[in-house]
Records
---
Amino acid sequence: MILPIYNCFNPVLRKKTEDITEITQDTITFINNMIETMYNADGIGLAANQVGDLRSIMIIDNTKEEDSKAKPIVMINPKITGNTELLSDYKEGCLSIPKFYEVVTRPSEIELEYIDVNGKKHKLGADELLARVILHEIDHLNGILFFDRITPLKKALAKSKLRKIELNKVIPHYDMMSANNKIIKGVEE
Ligand code: ZN
């Protein structure tokens, strides 16, 4: 089932998610809905609170290979355990902030731990785009948005753009949940 993606000005995007203690059938169904929702929106990552849920779950697929079978990475209760001091810049976007892109500086290599859908614990080292998407999604799980990490000057310059997003005047091709919990139907370009 495709779920509406919550607008960044909806309060749920500012809430910290909670670790899962048990993976139930309901958890699996929810994860499958997240995967369907992310691909429908052409995203490369999605965090649970972006679809209005406060479980610590995120999914990632940065492969972008149209003809290979999509294999999303599902991360439950992810925690960063280390990062290099080396930083990199990259222009980010976010399904909750439609059509808004800004350069964000982040560590270029990270280490993390998470559990998969079978409850198995993993340790992973990541760099380049994968590290960036992981850091972006973990920020979501902690109630942080990527525009919190741009310079105050850039943020001031983006004020009117962000205001339009808050007022649902920027409509992507997928359905969104507005800041005050109204469904805004997506529009194909
Ligand atoms: Zn995002």
Note: The chain has a mean pLDDT of 95.
---
Amino acid sequence: MKYILANWKENKDFSQVKTWISEFKKNNFETINKEIELILMPPFPFLIYLKEELKEFSFIKIGSQDISFFEDGAYTGEVGAPNLTEITNYSLIGHSERRKYFSETNDILFQKSNLAQKYKITPIFCIRGLNDPLPSKIEFIAYEPTWAIGTNQNEPLENIIDIKNKLNIKDYQKFIYGGSVNENNFIQYINHPEINGILIGGASLIPENISKILLSL
Ligand code: PGA
């Protein structure tokens, strides 16, 4: 299985979400490769809407961009694992933007990862490089060098494989690359046997980009 992750970050209003869906649905996905999974990660308010609107496509799963490190209770504004269970299959944890703008520490991120797993949400744990520790028993690891995010400077393939080797990834673990991946440069990453998936930010906001990627695999 290869994984295409679409991280919309803090983008799109509701009408733009509806347009994305209607444009996406213009494609014929009947012959799509069965070994592909698309994980859509919109802002929280659109999670359930995307899940409902796209439920005819079994290759699509829904993920949140974050999860609270509190389990549940009086934490105004937070969205926790029990809120998300039955809605999301995955949760992105530790994106470099969370670490940078929200001062999320490794302890907080490990707690988030534990809570996601407790509620059967698969954490996708992001690291910026070899200095960021990984929680134990994490299945999905997304390597995203900060300098490559949103800069159009995607990391060369050989550097990514070198990082993967140094991380001592186990057989059961999935290794994802993210950072300026788009519809023009994705193929080298997704086709490489050592890379299980790609995490796409900016380019995923345009439905044609995602459908082009999906239909070329
Ligand atoms: P980008 O973002 O594709 O816009 O570089 C990737 C990410 O931050 O997840």
Note: Residues 7, 144, 149-150, 178-181, 199-203 surround 2-phosphoglycolic acid (CB under 6 Å).
